[in-house]
Amino acid sequence: MADDNLSERQRDLEIEVGHGTAVDLRSLVNVSQKFSGLVEEVARDYTGVSRGVRWVVEVEHGSVRLPLRAEAAAESVNPSAVREIGHVIAGGLSELEAAPSRPAHFSDKALGLAKELANYATDDFQIVVRNGTVGGKLSKQLSVNAEKVLGSPLESLGTIEGKLEALSLHGSKDFSVWPPGGTAIKCLFGSRLDLERDVLPAVNKRVAARGRIKTRPNGERVSVEVDELRVIGGKPASADEVRGILKGYEVADW
To answer: I need a surface site. Which of 27, 136, 162, 180 has the fewest CB within 10 A?
Structure first.
């Protein structure tokens, strides 16, 4: 374990977004969501307790920085151990940036979240994660290295079921299906899938999506290229009833 006499500055975890540039709200929210998921997952693996650590944001004036302070949120979590998690996260991201090796306490879920977080980083939209002097700037190389550690997904034909949400028409068209009790699975439009005929009437409905499923070696379903989509139970809304929702938007989220 790290030295318990670390300074308060070293015990804090900080993420800086868009160094020296304007940051739009959607980008800040997206990055914050991925970072929040990452720190919670590493803290869970480190302490062995789900939601055993509470991350408190200490906002600094005049900068898009989120200094975080970790606090024990469960009696079974050692407060002195909690102070080391920021070091584990920042150091782990730095290690993953440098080489395709799994950092300590980075589960497959944490690796996936780190990969998604790094995908937001560009030369004009920098993301920096620090714990005192540990850590640094994230880049697409971290995403590449995380993908190598996770392993190439396997492809098979199959069907997933869940609620259809988060339809995106910006760039490549896709939507998300949320299985009961699971996490969202990204669904890409196959060549046989039609937006108005198949997808719009199924928004906010429980659906069965069939197509080519990409699955990681650990069983995690990465994405589905959907060729067939049907609503499970009930009568779907017609395309005419929901088509107007998309007017004037590049992205529609439900």
So the answer is: 180
Give the dihedral sign, CA 115/81/73/49: positive
**Distance from CA of residue 242 to its chain's centroid?**
28
Six-digit token pair at 246? 């998309």
Query: What are the tens digits of pLDDT across the range 200-230?
Result: 999 999 999 999 999 887 788 889 999 999 9
Residue 251, domain member (yes or no): no
Domain that holds residue 232: 154-246
Question: 238 in helix, strand or coil?
Answer: coil
Closest CA to 24 of 58, 64, 61, 59: 64
Q: Is 2 within the bounds of a domain?
A: no
Amino acid at 235: K
Q: Are residues 185 and 134 in the same domain?
A: no
> What sections of the chain are H helices per DSSP?
8-11, 25-47, 79-82, 85-98, 108-119, 140-150, 239-242
Q: Give the global pTM.
A: 0.54
